[in-house]
Amino acid sequence: MKRANPIRQRLAALSLLGVPLLTYPLLSLPGGSLGGIPASYLYLFGVWAGLIALAAWVSERRGK
Amino acid sequence: MLSGWSITLLAAAYLGLLFGVARFGDARADAGKSIISANVYALSLAVYCTSWTFYGSVGRATSGGLSFLTIYLGPTLMLLCVGVIIKMIRISKAQRITSIADFIASRYGKSQLLAGMVTIIAVIGVVPYIALQLKAMAASVDVLLDHSGSSVQFWGLDSTFLIAAVLALFSILFGTRHLDATERHEGMVAAVAFESVVKLVAFMAVGLFVTYGMFGGLGDLFQRAAASPELGRLLQLDSSRAGTWTALIVLSGLAIIFLPRQFQIIVVENVDESHLKRAVWLFPLYLLLINIFVLPLALGGLLHFGGQSFNPDTFVLTLPLARGAEALALLAFIGGLSAATGMVIVETIALSTMVCNDLVMPWLLRSSWLQAENRQDLSGLLIAIRRIAIALILLLGYIYFRAAGEAYALVGIGLISFTAVAQFAPAMFGGMYWKQGTRAGAVAGLSAGFAIWLYTLLLPSFAKSGWIASGFVEHGLFGIAWLKAQALFGLSGLDEISHCLWWSMLANIGCYVAVSLNSRPDAVEASQAERFVDVFRFDQRKAEASLWRGKASLDALVGLLERFLGASRAHQQLSVYSRSKGVADWHGLPVDAQFVQFAEAELAGAIGSASARVMVASVAQEEDLGLDEVLDILDEATQVRAHSRELEAKQRELEAATTELREANERLRELDRMKDDFISTVTHELRTPLTSIRALSEMLHEDPRLELAERTRFLGIIVGEAERLTRLINQILDMAKLESGRAEWTTGEVDLGETARESMDSVGQLFREKGVLLEGDIPASGPIVLADRDRLMQVLINLLSNAVKFVPGELGCVQVKVGLDGSLVRVEVRDNGPGLTPEECDVIFEKFRQGGNTLTGKPKGTGLGLPISRQIIEYFGGKLWVESHPGEGANFIFTVPLPVSEE
């Protein structure tokens, strides 16, 4: 029997992780600003970039 | 510099370049050297970013702050669910699916009705979206011309119409090269990927210019915005709109795979599944980059033009122009142009395939002049239909753009389109993962969802534009308050998109599930459900063969292929198929179920699965398999799978059992060999004394004149040997009893010190005869152990008699020592004999092995004493071993555990 593809499962897990991180109520946490840049702006782009970096790491790690 | 003609020339040059890229891509594909790599595939996905992104995001950000990001976060999250997308690709390749309408229709029994419905929803939902692109292009041209104060007119036609015409030409040239829509359009994909790069570069350039050229960087921009209360509001996330935020993420997540152009690029144009591995992060990265400067641009525009009435949708152009950066504005214009053209090209190609296969073909197939007896080549007609469809769709978009103008119906269409295609989600996901979903359910769900979308979103947008009376929005249909279009059943407090998404999904999913559960699929549906849901493990050949029964002639099927694919392409595909079957000439192919399936799949690639089904059925006499029969066949396939899994498990068990048996057999054989060895050794040992007894007895018997002294000596030897024989037999019996566990033990409290002294007494005579010194180092009383006294004595006597045998006479000395060692009693018998080599230390505990050289010296014992002693000591839970070095005497030690005190 073929086992479920681990890369696909890891990516799907990332997606499930992203949903709570990028929606309310967690989104209402960042307030104020950092170095003049609003924390909400930094938070959204930061989490987004983090997800992309993790996805890249997961899918490119074991290249053929 | 910015004259009308220079703008026209620039746009023409850019479109010319696009033609060049597409031409190159097609040329390379024809030469068999595809330029579609994983990176190109990922970039082509960015056709998602239309002019609505390029210009509209900034506009959205000026009113909604960061909420524009949801449109790009949803796709990021959806794309991470690679399994879903790979399943869509795998199904589409197996079923030769060419559009989302075909996908849904094929899953629910190749239904023409469903295909038509999906096509109509897609066209109604998406044509206004195309109009929006044309409007964006027109608006950008207007901004540039306003700035230069010139205008351009060609033969009384406006520039937007010309651009639309060029785009139609492009789509026709690169989108309908092959009739077979499953053939990929690599030139088009290459051009789209190229456009993605152009729009990203253009947008980033404008963003950097505004942020760092016009303002002092991100921090400065944000701080100046925060100073104004109105702009400061845009910097904060508004948690009262949490519902909208989530709804938009869901909506855009669905749009990224269900918009016809996205389905075309992600699924139909996919060359290699592994490309997804790159797209899964590269495309989200693209989205992130193109969005970084959206909010800064919006704030920059509002700060710069503060108060003046400027359209925020054109900030991307007006901001550079305000600073006189005309070259940058032109770059931005090209970026916007590429965003719009990319979308229009792919969308019209995708829609034209759907319109041709799912609306026009079913109608044509019913008309009389297309019937099967008519054998003219139809491939040219098909391509013509598709080309006309492309032109018509663009014309429709242009007319809508002209009619709508600045009306709300155009501005808000982006999300309205998304909500329309989101209606495909239940039928799509249900179709891929739920076998019970039926055609009736899909029809019901789609109709319900579409109706609600129409009533709560599209018609109100018309009303807002003043095209129809707005009574149903403000007061409800027929004045009934709970039918208010944007507060259905009194549900208010949501924005219109979330409101529509929530009600339409409720109705759509509800009807789909409820009707599916209460209807029975027909035979074709049931088998298609199996093929879709189990695509990863469906054994196609086998099941296909059993799922079709009937008669067809090779000529009729080949004729069908020739009519719809064109003779040369049909023959090419036929020879590829016959080669795969190992038949040299396709004329000799057997007309079996597999061939019929092949023909139907080829036709499906050209005219869609629903029409292909109808055409094949028209030339073949098919036996109608009932639903029960189909289910039986599928169940059988499932059972066979289950059985084979069971068999595998059984086989593994058997293999394990076989290995165990083999090992047990090895052990038995080893034991058998040891037994044989034992018997041969025992007989050998018994024969030695017997031989000497016999030899001496014969001498005595044959020679009566033997001296008396000699006679007595011989008899003495005979008696000695007989005794040895008796001892040997006793010990063998003893050994056998011990080994088989039948020995009798009388266990009780034994004073080991006393036992040792008694043993020394009983062998004292032997020592005195040989003149060997026997010393004891034994406590006056105790230690007490639980053991069999006689057996312990047997061990001690054995050790002592061994010692006395090996020590030299007169000088010999043997010491017995009894002491405690932790929880053990330790007994040592030390001698000053010749000692043992390390090998001998092990060997002497084996049966019939004796110390000293048995070849030269006469054996001094039976060779069973020590093995028996060891067995006895081990029976009491102790150990018996020897410590010795050659020339230094030997020290035999055994331990017996002290009884566990009962506390």
Number of domains of chain A: 1
Identify the overall geometry of chain A: elongated
Helical fraction of chain A? 55-70%
**Largest sheet data of chain A:** 2 strands, antiparallel
Note the overall shape of chain B.
elongated
State which percent range the strand residues of chain A make up: 5-15%
Largest sheet of chain B: 5 strands, mixed
Radius of gyration of chain B: 49 Å
| Structural class by secondary-structure content of chain A | mainly alpha
Oligomer: heterodimer
Binned strand content of chain B: 5-15%
Please specify the SSE layout and strand pairing.
The complex is a heterodimer of chains A (64) and B (903).
Chain A lengths: L5 H16 L11 E2 L2 E2 H22 L4
Chain B lengths: L3 H27 L7 H7 L6 H14 L5 H11 L1 H14 L4 H8 L4 H37 L10 H17 L10 H29 L3 H10 L1 H7 L6 H17 L1 H9 L6 H18 L1 H12 L9 H8 L3 H41 L12 H26 L3 H4 L1 H10 L2 H9 L5 H26 L6 H4 L21 H22 L5 H11 L6 H8 L2 E2 L2 H12 L1 H15 L11 H15 L1 H11 L1 E2 L4 H76 L5 H33 L7 E4 H19 L2 E5 L6 E4 L1 H18 L6 E9 L2 E8 L6 H6 L21 H11 L3 E6 L5 E8 L6
Parallel strand pairs in B: 4-6
Antiparallel strand pairs in B: 1-2, 3-5, 6-7, 7-9, 8-9
Helix pairs in contact in B: 1-8, 1-9, 2-9, 2-14, 3-15, 3-17, 4-12, 4-14, 6-7, 7-8, 7-17, 7-18, 7-20, 7-22, 8-17, 8-18, 9-14, 9-15, 9-16, 9-17, 10-11, 10-15, 12-13, 12-20, 12-24, 13-17, 15-16, 16-17, 17-18, 20-24, 22-24, 25-31, 27-28, 27-29, 29-30, 31-32, 32-36, 33-34, 34-36
Verbal overview:
The complex is a heterodimer of chains A (64) and B (903). By secondary structure, chain A is mainly α. Chain A has one domain (6-23, 33-60). Chain A is built from two helices and two strands; from the N terminus they run αββα. In chain A, strands 1-2 form a two-stranded antiparallel ribbon. In chain A, a hairpin with a 2-residue loop joins β1 (33-34) and β2 (37-38). Chain B is mostly helical and 903 residues long. Chain B has five domains: 4-367, no CATH class; 424-535, no CATH class; 539-625, no CATH class; 630-737, Helix Hairpins, CATH 1.10.287.130; 745-897, Heat Shock Protein 90. In chain B, 69% of the residues lie in helices and 5% in strands. Chain B contains 36 helices and nine strands. In chain B, α7 runs parallel beside α22. The interface between A and B is large, with 39 and 39 residues.
